[in-house]
């Protein structure tokens, strides 16, 4: 083998320096969009109104795509390297390790928001154990990641990578279930993940099949769901949460809501549970909804005062959502009392703003309750009652938090403005006094980057368009 020595004292020519710089920067700009020099010299636009009006709609449509970029950014070769020290059932490439890292970071913050929960090292440990020990779960995990990425980037077609992992998962889980042994926790986790993947893909029929199988598996295990709660509480919560998400998509009652006792009051701090007095209007709703409302108000008191254990937070939100969905299934006959109907839909939509911080994920699960809530908001027999004005004001804001896009602002913002005038809410502080009569979380819903900021922008756009229309009409009249 011949040794070669590098002499750095020699003068490098221009071509050599260019080759060195190219080699050093190799891979550094992968996935980035490099603007042209002409675009770099363009003046910075500090306001959305500085842009042409035809581009403002494009900006509204691109907001969710920007959210996806922040959630699943291009491959970073340095993130996820800690997984290279473990032996997985299949060989992981650097991009696959990075996907695990980013997915775990994003989902942990979504399921266990820091405003409510204390940091916990036990949150992802069971799932990591399944990934190392069970090849079936690992394939299912990557199929679920692919579905998340597809959802966040706004694609409708299933990727080949997701299809490959999904087919491998089905083959392996059928093999595990055909042995006749009592299904393991990892097998339950696989079937739950398959149902989640179906929910994310919008394949409700596929999710129903997996949940039917999951229900049968839990019935075959000694003690059923109660035993699973004692032995693996996190897995039980995942089962119940997936059941809730499917009920929101399918419009039916939950499968496991009646099998577990209400644990919400025990999960919430004693100093907050039941301490809030209901607003006068809420004393007119039925008693079951009043109990749920007390728990929601107790949950709203937690941020900024006390943080819950991750498992206690999950117990609370699961209990609240199960009781709301089982009170009147979304796909069934609606309550005869308009106030009960509006409050159930509004409270369920409010819970989606807590459960799903990512816009695309929230829209995926809240489409049916939002559709029913919009119908109730447009019902004159309910909307024209003067006594319901504060509640209607809250419902409009909750709807806006969940579904506001450019086209929604055309009807939503004018109604909020008109109702604010009737309630004499001239500032955001005045509006807050009205909103705080009902469930409201300041650190979540008052943040400047949240949806009420979009409502303000949409209001400005509508006012600008009205001014332009008035000017055009005046010019036409003067010309005639």
UniProtKB/TrEMBL annotation:
<protein>
    <recommendedName>
        <fullName>Fungal-specific transcription factor domain-containing protein</fullName>
    </recommendedName>
</protein>
């Amino acid at each position: 083998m011949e040794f070669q020595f590098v002499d750095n004292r020699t003068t490098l020519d221009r071509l050599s320096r260019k080759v060195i710089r190219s080699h050093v920067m190799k891979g550094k700009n992968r996935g980035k969009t490099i603007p042209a020099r002409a675009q770099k010299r363009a003046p910075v636009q500090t306001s959305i109104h500085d842009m042409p009006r035809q581009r403002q709609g494009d900006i509204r449509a691109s907001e969710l795509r920007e959210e996806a970029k922040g959630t699943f950014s291009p491959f970073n070769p340095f993130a996820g390297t800690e997984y290279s020290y473990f032996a997985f059932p299949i060989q992981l490439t650097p991009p696959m390790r990075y996907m695990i890292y980013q997915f775990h970071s994003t989902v942990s913050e979504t399921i266990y928001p820091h405003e409510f929960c204390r940091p916990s090292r036990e949150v992802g440990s069971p799932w990591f154990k399944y990934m190392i020990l069970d090849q079936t779960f690992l394939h299912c995990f990557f199929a679920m990641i692919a579905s998340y990425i597809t959802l966040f980037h706004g694609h409708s077609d299933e990727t080949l990578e997701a299809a490959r992992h999904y087919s491998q998962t089905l083959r392996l889980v059928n093999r595990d279930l055909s042995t006749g042994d009592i299904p393991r926790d990892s097998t339950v986790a696989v079937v739950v993940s398959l149902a989640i993947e179906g929910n994310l893909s919008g394949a409700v029929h596929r999710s129903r099949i997996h949940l039917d199988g999951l229900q049968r598996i839990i019935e075959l295990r000694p003690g059923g769901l109660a035993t699973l709660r004692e032995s693996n509480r996190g897995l039980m919560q995942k089962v119940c949460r997936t059941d809730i998400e499917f009920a929101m998509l399918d419009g039916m009652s939950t499968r496991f809501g009646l099998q577990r006792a209400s644990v919400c009051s025990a999960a919430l701090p004693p100093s907050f549970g039941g301490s809030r007095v209901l607003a006068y209007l809420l004393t007119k709703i039925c008693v079951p909804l009043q109990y749920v409302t007390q728990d929601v108000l107790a949950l709203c008191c937690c941020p900024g005062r006390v943080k819950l254990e991750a498992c206690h937070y999950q117990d609370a939100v699961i209990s609240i959502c199960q009781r709301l969905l089982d009170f009147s299934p979304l796909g069934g006959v609606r309550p005869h009392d308009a106030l009960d109907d509006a409050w159930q839909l509004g409270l369920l939509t409010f819970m989606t703003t807590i459960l799903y911080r990512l816009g695309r994920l929230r829209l995926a699960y809240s489409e049916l309750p939002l559709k029913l809530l919009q119908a109730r908001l447009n019902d004159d027999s309910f909307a024209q009652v003067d006594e319901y004005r504060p509640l209607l004001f809250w419902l409009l804001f909750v709807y806006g938090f969940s579904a506001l896009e450019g086209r929604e602002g055309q009807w939503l913002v004018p109604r909020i403005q008109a109702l604010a005038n009737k309630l004499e809410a001239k500032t955001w502080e005045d509006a807050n006094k009205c909103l705080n009569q009902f469930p409201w979380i300041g650190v979540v819903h008052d943040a400047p980057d949240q949806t009420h900021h979009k409502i303000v922008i949409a209001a400005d756009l509508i006012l600008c368009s009205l001014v332009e229309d008035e000017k055009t009409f005046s010019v036409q009249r003067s010309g005639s």
